[in-house]
């Protein structure tokens, strides 16, 4: 009889506490270096998907990309940069004219105001050159830490931090790399887990994977290269149910 009780106990659903232990063991398997290596193998050409030729263009495109797809931004920026080819010309632009061009990116009034003010600050305070330090970048209108990290990593090849957008935040959580929800704290955790020279590429890899496989609503865990080490691999199965 005791052996029967034992066997029943074995078939009980895993208690919460025990599930936590299983989760921890799996988390331990998902070493940051392994995750990075697998994603890099899968996306050897991962890169910033916003089109730009100068730091200023990337700054404008990044501000426009808030709550908007990179694809949409890439349709709008050629028109914008043709009409306003320099920092100074955008700084002098009429708000309603800029709004008209960027309308399809959403939140166009705020974005038009931000890019005109940002261009004015770059022209007046930095002689038309986008600054290459985090401290100076975050003083520009419409530029926060995330945008500054995008510019530093992609226009200046400076690994100052990790860009934590919606994809990076979601994947960091699903992969068990963080339990934080505040992007700044998530960034700090990622900076602690990955070597500095990987920070810019790490964000690209997570964004590529988030867009192509680890979808917010329907993660495709069945075809994911990280499924065997991801503590959230059952999400994909649940979403198919
Ligand atoms: S296994 Fe699923 S949840 Fe984990 S990274 Fe892959 S797609 Fe995302």
Q: Any key phrases for this structure?
A:
single chain, Endonuclease Iii, domain 2, Endonuclease III, domain 1, 61% helix, elongated, binds iron/sulfur cluster
How would you sum up this structure, described in words?
By secondary structure, this protein is mostly helical. Helix content is 61%, strand content 0%. The chain is built from 14 helices and no strands. The chain has helices at residues 2-11, 16-29, 32-42, 55-64, 70-83, 87-91, 95-102, 108-125, 134-137, 145-155, 166-174, 183-193, 199-212, 234-240. Helix 4 (55-64) runs antiparallel to helix 8 (108-125), helix 4 (55-64) packs antiparallel against helix 10 and helix 11 crosses helix 13. The longest helix is centred in the middle third of the chain and has 18 residues, at 108-125.
What structural class should be given to the helix and strand makeup?
A: mainly alpha
Please state the average pLDDT score. 89
Tell me the β content.
under 5%
CATH superfamily of the largest domain: Helix-hairpin-Helix base-excision DNA repair enzymes (C-terminal)
Runs with pLDDT <50, length 5+? 1-27
Into how many domains do the coordinates divide?
A: 2
Looking at CATH, which topology of the largest domain would you report?
Endonuclease Iii, domain 2
The level of helicity is 55-70%
Largest sheet report: none
Bound molecules: iron/sulfur cluster
User: How many helices?
Assistant: 14
What's the total count of β strands? 0
Indicate the CATH class of the largest domain: Mainly Alpha
Based on CA inertia axes, which overall geometry fits? elongated
Written as H for each helix and E for each strand, in order along the chain, the element string is HHHHHHHHHHHHHH
Radius of gyration (Å): 22 Å
Instruction: Using the 3D structure, state the CATH architecture of the largest domain.
Output: Orthogonal Bundle
- Compute the separation of the termini in Å: 38 Å
């Amino acid at each position: 009889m005791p052996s029967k009780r034992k066997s029943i106990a074995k078939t009980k659903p895993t208690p919460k506490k025990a599930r936590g232990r299983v989760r921890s063991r799996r988390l331990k398997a998902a070493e940051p270096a392994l995750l990075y290596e697998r994603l890099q193998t899968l996306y050897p050409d991962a890169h910033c998907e916003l089109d730009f030729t100068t730091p200023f263009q990337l700054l404008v495109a990044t501000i426009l990309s808030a709550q908007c797809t990179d694809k949409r931004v890439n349709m709008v920026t050629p028109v914008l940069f043709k009409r306003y080819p320099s920092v100074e010309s955008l700084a002098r632009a009429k708000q309603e004219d800029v709004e008209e061009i960027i309308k399809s990116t959403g939140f166009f009034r705020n974005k038009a105001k931000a890019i005109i003010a940002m261009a004015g600050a770059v022209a007046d305070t930095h002689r038309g050159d986008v600054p290459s330090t985090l401290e100076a970048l975050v003083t520009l209108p419409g530029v926060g830490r995330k945008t500054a990290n995008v510019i530093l990593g992609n226009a200046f090849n400076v690994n100052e931090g990790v860009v934590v957008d919606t994809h990076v935040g979601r994947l960091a959580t699903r992969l068990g790399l963080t339990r934080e929800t505040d992007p700044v704290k998530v960034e700090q955790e990622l900076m602690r887990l990955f070597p500095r020279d990987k920070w810019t590429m790490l964000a690209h890899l997570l964004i590529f994977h988030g867009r192509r496989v680890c979808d917010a609503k329907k993660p495709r865990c069945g075809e994911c290269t990280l499924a065997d080490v991801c503590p959230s691999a059952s999400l994909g199965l649940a979403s198919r149910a």
